[in-house]
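In this section we walk through a basic example: taking a raw amino acid sequence and producing a predicted 3D structure, encoded as discrete structure tokens. The instruction is simple. Fold the sequence below.
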Amino acid sequence: MRQPLSLKARALRYLSMREHSRLELGRKLSRYAEEGDDVDALLDFLEKNNWLSQERFAESLVNRRAGRYGNARVLAELQQHGVKGDAFDELKSGLKDTEAKRAREVWRRKFGTVPQDAEERGKQMRFLLQRGFSQSAVRAALQGRDDEDDDI
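The resulting token sequence is shown next.
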């Protein structure tokens, strides 16, 4: 019969697959915790040895999501995972700088042509807004040009 994984082994297995937030890993591990297991102490140990890092998790999540979603959605997901403080503010400002460009890229992949009528424009706007992009980023994307094209 196969031995059940210890909490530490289970935590390392999760972390070897992808970065996790402390909150997320704690939730996953608490399902398997038995009497006498201290999940918080294990999480502290993992952080002390730099196997668990909120900063790495936040950067990983932003890299995975920013190419497809707007600031509102990415930031909401970061908050759900318990990311806050200076790291959150820094990521927020970095995302704000690139939002219009990311919205244009998402728009270009999905639609690629400027809307011909109000119905098509509404459809394209709703799509981008549902992805979490701001109104200003959506307007820039629907113009269908990059900032570099402004010189023409």
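Looking at the output, two observations stand out. The helical segments are 7-17, 22-30, 39-48, 54-65, 71-80, 86-110, 118-130, 135-142. Residues 7-52 form a domain with the Arc Repressor Mutant, subunit A fold (CATH 1.10.10). In the next section we compare this with other chains.
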